[in-house]
Design a protein that fits this description.
With 268 residues, this protein is of the alpha/beta class. The protein is built from eleven helices and eight strands. The chain has one domain: Phosphoenolpyruvate-binding domains (TIM Barrel), CATH 3.20.20.60. Strands 1-2-3-4-5-6-7-8 form an eight-stranded parallel β-barrel, surrounded by seven helices. Helix 8 packs parallel to helix 9. The structure holds 3-methyl-2-oxobutanoic acid (KIV). The site of 3-methyl-2-oxobutanoic acid has 11 residues, from strand 6.
């Protein structure tokens, strides 16, 4: 079989232009990274969700830069093709200088290829500084789990007109600051569609409807093994699949065919 070229930011932009949906899944270790690559996932997100699904914390807040580096290295050892995006954990971007230092560690020690940070306007200067220093950045708007206490829980964002306008403005602002990709979490599908159409960079949705340029799920949600209640926007792809590789392939196929997320996973 011909070896596929590594996925780059350029590949993802081309996919957006061509209307090919981008399949993203979180990964935290080497074994799952191999399976996710075999299934055809284009982007591996070493998400700080690992604080909840791997470390057993109640939120992502306790996750440290060292934790992210450890898991990012595990993923990097196994990854051959997919782009590796690594989360900047809680308070690791509190100033531009901190953003640069911590992102440099994620690239140097964790072999990240892109960093993801949560927040809008407050992050413009960090995004600009990082990209000017050659570090690709993915923004994250909507439900930003690191702000769970300020948001008052894990709930849909951007429902009111003012909040929706602000989210669109901040998405544009992040792109103008230099972001190469944007994650939109738990926002109404009409707003996510508007943002995806307005931006030139790929917009990856989670609980944001089918009209984003790609989809991301937390691996453990996708396999139905996250303890407790399943988020409404996720689907257990292991249900009905013969094994884990088949479940991962089913997810990628459903994203590409625009069958996931379906109406039942979509938040109004
Ligand atoms: O940490 C994570 O897994 C994430 C996704 C939910 C987008 O940020």
């Amino acid at each position: 079989m011909a070896k596929l070229a590594p996925v780059t930011t350029e590949t993802l932009r081309r996919m957006k232009t061509d209307g090919e949906k981008i399949a993203v899944v979180t990964s935290y270790d080497a074994s799952f990274t191999c399976l996710l690559e075999d299934a055809g996932v284009e982007v591996l997100l070493v998400g700080d969700s690992l604080g909840m699904v791997v470390q057993g914390h109640e939120s992502t807040l306790p996750v440290t830069v060292d934790d992210m580096i450890y898991h990012s290295r595990c993923v990097a050892r196994a990854a051959k093709r997919a782009l590796r995006v690594v989360d900047m954990p809680f308070m690791s971007c509190a100033s531009v200088a901190q953003s640069l230092d911590n992102a440099a560690r994620l690239l140097r020690e964790g072999r990240a290829q892109m960093v993801k940070l949560e927040g809008g306007e407050l992050m413009y200067d960090s995004v600009a500084a990082l990209t000017q220093h050659g570090i690709p950045v993915c923004g994250h708007l909507g439900l930003t789990p690191q702000s769970v206490h300020q948001l008052g829980g894990y709930r849909v964002q951007g429902r009111e007109e003012q909040a929706a306008t602000r989210l669109l403005d901040e998405a544009i602002g992040l792109e103008q600051a230099g972001a190469s990709m944007l994650v939109l979490e738990c926002v109404p599908s009409a707003l996510a569609k508007q943002v995806s159409e307005r931006l030139g960079i790929p917009v990856i949705g989670i609980g944001a409807g089918v009209d984003c340029d790609g989809q991301v799920l937390v691996l453990y949600d996708l396999l139905g093994i996250t303890p407790g209640k399943r988020p409404k926007f996720s689907q257990n792809f292991l249900d009905g699949a013969r094994d884990i590789p088949a479940a991962l392939e089913a997810y990628v196929a459903a994203v590409k065919a625009k069958q996931f997320p379906a109406a039942e996973h979509t938040l109004a």
